[in-house]
Request: fold
Amino acid sequence: MNTKVRIAGVELKNPVMTASGTFGSGVEYSEFVDLSRLGAVVTKGVASVPWPGNPTPRIAETCGGMLNAIGLQNPGIDVFCSRDIPFLRRQNTRIVVNVCGRSTEEYCEVVERLGHEPVDLLEINISCPNVKEGGIAFGQNPRAVEEITLAVKRVARQPVIMKLSPNVTDITETARAAEAGGADALSLINTLTGMKIDVERRAFALANKTGGLSGPAIKPVAVRMVYQAAQAVGIPIIGMGGIATAEDALEFILAGATAVSVGTANFRNPRATVEIAEGIEAYMARHGVEDLSTLIGAVR
Reply:
């Protein structure tokens, strides 16, 4: 039984990855999960300098999910390279670094720095606000998606995955724009913008007012967008959004995803990623599937 998949020439032992921002760099979760059982660990977003994140409260529970407005808090590229990469290199899994920035120059600075580090893939989070364009996220404008992809590809030494925002009218437009800019793969979806109000306090539940909705509530939207993107582009797709079980992961794979990322489920069940990988193997055995690649995009 072959569970291996390839993303832009990089082989993963299985299709199960972690979703950025939900797994740190794997240090805490290594107490519960054998990281070598995963196809890849996707790190929390890394910026050119430390980001403090948003004021608290930054997390709120919702029906079937959660809202977060962490604000991409991170210690910056210097600490990441000195502290986190050495740990991850000892884990016998692929390393995907999520990159964030507030301008094209900031993204490229981090990407150039990582070109000299032993990491396998770069995931570019273009849901960050573009400070030079009035705070509109890069990923909401197809032209901006293509331009930032082109800029990142010019300086990148590792394959580039563009992480797409679902907060758009047509996901296929941004998917095609990223492909046109030279993206090696896509990951989607990022969180949906949402809001919660505390009626007793008559105040917003999050200090930021809005936050990113994740968890099971968004899965049907995510599956639909992965399917649409897979029909529109010819590069691999990493599907994410509400995956909590092997069945969830297989939905994304059948819709066209080559791999999947598990996020919010990690907070409820620290072993979710390994259980999903094991569940995919059990499904393949039960249905006589010899090679996982035969399932990718099998539902048309």
Observations:
- The longest strand covers residues 94-99.
- The mean pLDDT is 94.
